[in-house]
Amino acid sequence: MIVKVLELEKDKARLVIQGQGHTFMNALIEELLNDPDVDVARYMIEFQFSDPELFVTTKGKKSPIPLIQKACKRIASNCNELIEGLKKN
After folding, report:
1. Is 3-87 in CATH node 3.30.1360.10?
2. Residue 60 has what pLDDT?
3. What is the pTM of this model?
């Protein structure tokens, strides 16, 4: 996955995540909003086949990049749990 940083400040980030669509971005936004340190998490896909732009702001001057990484790890963990559950059946 290729990520381009458009803007990065102490408590704000704008990123373009190439090759992703609504499915992944909706899961990422939901996971980010579950984090109490995240103030705003949203994405925009300007045109039908364009890459999504992620916008995240945090509370208390926390860096958004580690919070995005943790959210992605939680998504991956949930997927791994599902895969293991399916293997048992």
Report:
1. yes
2. 84
3. 0.88
